[in-house]
Amino acid sequence: MAVPARDSVANSLAQQAFALRGSFPDAKVRLTPTRFVWTGTLQPSPGSRIYTVRIELSNRRFPRIEVVRPALEPRPGEPLPHVFDDGSLCLHLEDEWTSDMLMVDTTLPWTAEWLINYEIWKATGLWYGGGQWPPVRTPVREQEGSDMEQSRSPSAAKI
Questions:
Q1: Which of 85, 90, 127, 150 has its CA 20 to 30 A from that of 141?
Q2: Domains of the chain: total
């Protein structure tokens, strides 16, 4: 007997939120049935700065990762490597992340690795993070009013 499929988006978002909360109890998490936002700090190595990072996941295919503080700065005359036009980080190729993967095990370690490579790039001008740039895919932009309105509603949960 087959088990009926559940609403994978809502369950996946809740699983992502609780997995991240388990490893980062001081981080801020906002969860609605269709949108998830995690804001926390990462220090990729003992000699690194502390970065405030925001992860957003909704009905898009991939998480959107943004460094909130400190602002990422390009080298003189060079654009930031592996950063989309909207300021989000390019962490993986299109087929390297799926929604059944926990972000605490993938996206956050990849973000820490990206930040270390950013720090090396700032100092040397060389990007050791590998990857493909510019990427084949582009980030999906949220449609105005859809998830943003729901995230402001009183039903949004803080975990």
A1: 127
A2: 1
